[in-house]
Design brief:
alpha+beta, 4-stranded mixed beta sheet, binds zinc ion, 9 helices, 176 residues
């Protein structure tokens, strides 16, 4: 029993850091984004100012997203270290669109729409896909980029259709 209490006390110590968020300058980890044309298209003349102020926080879950509290970028450090560099690049473009939306006062996680129909998501994906095409990626590769483990085949098909990406990898389900 005493041991248990000791362990619980220990746990409390480990829980504390969750409330304390450490953030770092975005430009310490992501260099040169302020020179990317796709990024300048998002922020225009505010680009420099945005990157001067943007912070990044590292986490152990998910991929990356924008805090709906203060607009800083949250990145899974494992994804950053081990993920496909092209996927990461396109994700940053996608998240920067969300940052712009946040700066405009838009609600990022609005529950009224499903993920693949949410206007803020579609806008972010449009920028990422446009950049992917500029880089010369095939529809197959772009479709692979769009695929995530938490998106159903139907959702992926819907999203791909909205974005005019041919997703041949997604099999049509046999009629039941
Ligand atoms: Zn998004």
């Amino acid at each position: 029993m005493l041991r248990m209490l000791q362990i619980i006390k220990m746990l409390r110590i480990y829980r504390m850091p969750r409330f304390k968020v450490s953030t770092y300058p975005f430009t310490d980890y992501f260099k040169g984004f302020d020179k990317v044309e796709a990024v300048r298209r998002i922020f225009g003349e505010k680009t420099e100012e945005v990157f001067r102020n943007l912070k990044v926080e590292f986490t152990w879950i998910g991929y990356m997203w924008i805090s709906d509290i203060d607009g800083h970028l949250i990145v899974n450090s494992r994804y950053l270290n081990n993920g496909d560099i092209l996927d990461i690049y396109l994700d940053v473009i996608h998240e920067l669109v969300h940052l712009k939306q946040f700066m405009e006062g838009k609600e990022l996680f609005e529950g009224r729409f499903s993920y693949v129909e949410r206007p803020t998501e579609i806008e972010a994906y449009r920028h990422a896909v446009e950049e992917a095409r500029k880089l010369g990626l095939s529809d197959e590769r772009i479709c692979a980029y769009l695929m995530t483990e938490w998106m159903s085949d139907d959702d992926l098909k819907r999203l791909a259709k909205t974005l005019n990406v041919v997703c041949e990898q997604v099999k049509d389900k046999a009629p039941q």
